[in-house]
Specification:
The chain is of the alpha/beta class. It is built from 4 helices and 6 strands; from the N terminus they run βαββαβαβαβ. It has one domain: Spore Coat Polysaccharide Biosynthesis Protein SpsA, Chain A. The strands form 2 sheets. Strands 5-4-1-6 form a 4-stranded parallel β-sheet, with helices on both faces. A two-stranded antiparallel sheet has the order 2-3.
Length: 116
């Protein structure tokens, strides 16, 4: 029987403007919108952390400063958080290139679902 090692890495997309949520995202990036008292990004990181993920690549873009400031101060110190900036928000396909160095040959979880 072959054993499969747990997935320890995740790539989270947090670069978009959230144009369909314009009233909420004019000043605040979509992953930072509070749901049940916490930013959406925090819910995602906590859920993945509970599943055993210890290394994260968060792809940022619109208001990257807000996402990075939150993540730098509010995450579990045993979790490694890295950032890549998607300069032009031209779709999720380009993120694969940004994540290549982080992922290497390891198995990883791509967090591709939308926040709404």
């Amino acid at each position: 029987m072959t054993t499969v090692s747990p997935i320890a890495k995740a790539v989270i997309l947090a670069a978009g403007r959230g144009t369909r949520m314009r009233e909420l995202t004019n000043e605040l990036p979509k992953p930072m919108i509070a749901v049940r008292g916490k930013p959406i990004l925090q819910h995602i990181v906590e859920g993945l952390r509970a599943a055993g993920v210890t290394e994260f690549l968060i792809v940022v873009g619109y208001r990257a400063d807000v996402v990075q400031d939150f993540s730098a101060t509010d995450h579990d110190s045993s979790v490694g958080i890295n950032y890549e900036t998607q300069i032009v928000q031209d779709g999720t396909g380009k993120v694969v290139e940004l994540a290549r160095a982080f992922v290497g040959t390891d198995r990883f979880y791509p967090q591709l679902r939308r926040y709404y």
